[in-house]
Amino acid sequence: MTEWDIKKLRILRTLRDRGTVTATAEALLMTPSAVSQQLTNLAKQLGVTLLEAQGRRVRLTDAAHLVLRHAEAVFAQLERADAELDGYLRGEAGRVRIAAFPTSVPALVVPAVRHLRTAHPRLDVRVREAEAAEAYELLTAGEVDLALSLAAHAPTARDPKFSRMPLLADPLDVALSAGHPLAGAPGLRLADLAAEPWIYGGSGPWSEITTAACEAAGFVPEQAHSASGWTAILAMVEAGMGVALVPRMASAERRGGTGVVMRVLSADQPRRHVVAAVRGGAEEGPAVARVLAALRRAATERETVQRN
Question: CB 3.0–4.6 Å: which of 130, 147, 211, 265 could bond 134 by disulfide?
Fold first, then answer.
């Protein structure tokens, strides 16, 4: 295959545009002899004559014009590569892969991606739903660049493999059937529900969150029914089969009818804390930094809505 030298091709193009070796040398901050030598070497590499004497000047041969016609396409592609690389270095291009737990996807990740599509359309964000254990395995293996999880299930802040950033304190509300005696009770506390049948998952994060919140309020919840999806949980609540704690961040998934009342607890309002994590030092990468900023923006907007 013919050896193509981009630097020498640029010199040939400049000669075509400037007309003389002297003008080419001035434009490229070279000596005329260096220009002539580079073009002689290029002709040898390509195996064609590129220049012909024309009085005291030179002119490009038909072969030189053929070479430049193809070289222009190469130069244009290199310009596009430069622009894309510059965007990558400024965090405006590239790919960032996120592993996020289910309720964080519609509540935080999707709003962040919407913002990034407008502000940085060349930044490609790929999302993978995963609970904490899988998310941190993927992060450690380099298969994702950022993990969203609850703080209780994240690596400790002392783990040097990861950098953690807090995003959101998500309140937990209680779901009651519309006909429940406490559905309209003022100043409802979690402790008021100690004798109620509870609905939550048999194992995993949500089971731990529910039992921990209830124990902090002074009682151990009686698990009457087990379910992990909000559709099933709220359907059972609506039927009067029990009560359940529901993260406010999961509000986008509450599609039940009017038979469920969501009550904000008063003095003993439990919360779960959401964090983002990256491999140690990766938060300084411009593309990851832009995604983190978009996630923080989404979290701030959600907290503002929650307060109002």
Answer: 130
